Structure prediction request, 452 residues.
Amino acid sequence: MFHDPDFMPFVPRKRPSIRVAARNFIENWPAEAYRDSHATVRGVWPILPEMRLVADPVLVEEILVAQADKFGRDRLQVEALADEVNRDSLFFAEGAHWRWQRRSATPAFRYENLLALVPTFAMGADILAQEWGARGREVVDVSPAMTRATFWIILQAVLGEGAASLDREKYLAALTPAFSTTAWRFLYAQMSLPRAFPFPGKRKAEADVRWLQRETSRLVAERRAARGGGTDILGLLLSARDPETGRAMTDSELVSNLYIFMVAGHETAATALAWTLWLLAKDQATQERLRAEIDAVVGARDIAPEDLEHLMFARQVIQESMRLFPPGVAIGRGAREDVTIGPLDIRKGDFLLVASFCLHRHEKLWEEPNAFDPCRFAPQKASARQRYAYLPFGAGPRICIGLSFAMIEMQVVLATLIRRFRFRAVPGHRLALATNLTLRAKNGLPLEIETL
Ligand code: HEM
Prediction:
């Protein structure tokens, strides 16, 4: 077990604060959420309403799995992200419309089919490694670096050769401000304020989103004009047919899904990888153990698909990193009808947050919850734990479709980087969280990088 004060960089507040809500809203979640089955975030009248948090694997199973049909996407998420992420997309669709889109996209995300992407994942990390290797020992903020690598990777997976026609840097530069304002949108949605209400950076974010939508539409039009199906994810979406009606996706559905895959497919994995490198930089012994595993399994050759099942410790390190710093801190749900779940009486329209961040650090579920210990995920230990105590990818029918994609990608990127570089913490750097779309560090995650 490795301990560091930064592994829990804030004290849960006794009284929620509006200032904190826009910066790092999880600080407003009370201490009970880390020791009880559920908790209420007190309201701040008239601005922030009360909010219910769930942090119990049995209740989580009911909400996300057993009675999943009684819950839909919650109002806050829809309102907060409606501008950035079109409601037609797989992420927001509900009922039959969601089911056929999910079925159409699923084959592209099966583990066996994704193994063909191992060289692409390795190349994404290699591009970065060449850049770092040329510069010798230096301090690098691994947050934006991981974003660039995972964005390059997702573009190859989704667009194939079509990726060449996109101005990658410009697209990424537009995404960052668009999503860094999500906390404001969540806050305003909670306060039921009109969408026209201003907040810092709003005008730029809106202009960026309009440009992103135009660019994404152009990519779909380009592929249509080339009459290309293709084996990449866009090709698969183009050839998808609803098994019941035989209809294909409309252009608007294609654009929204392409966009959601490009966004959800890189930001989350980038966040998880950056936290993983930062944790390993703190815990040198674990970093060495991981390097030894990679040397033993892969040696000096390229990483191959068959290596993945032997890079077990790498997998455990990533799992433990997503326990402490889950890219998505909670999973929101809105009740479609009145329902009682354990001690919770839920009314139609009520909003619930499955608080993954609290569940992952719950006193009753984890020994020394704030310590870093990848051995928690050794197979015997993991199988003894309650299934719904760990939710980085969600659970039930709406579990992340990109789970296998992300796990393979992260194993390959981590292995590629750890065998080329040693990562060390920068003395004096203190962590502050900035929870937006994903759980990020306010001032980035600078690490000292030494070429081996
Ligand atoms: C470390 C990486 C990732 C994490 C932690 C993550 C997390 C999640 C979570 C928690 C959900 C469930 C949300 C809910 O139930 O409300 C989700 C859904 C989703 N994720 Fe991921 N994700 C990751 C990577 C990816 C990748 C690589 C892709 C695509 C290439 C992707 C695409 C999606 C989509 C489309 C959904 C919506 C699925 C549906 O509603 O049917 N994610 N993700």
Q: What stands out?
A: DSSP finds 17 helices and twelve strands in the chain.
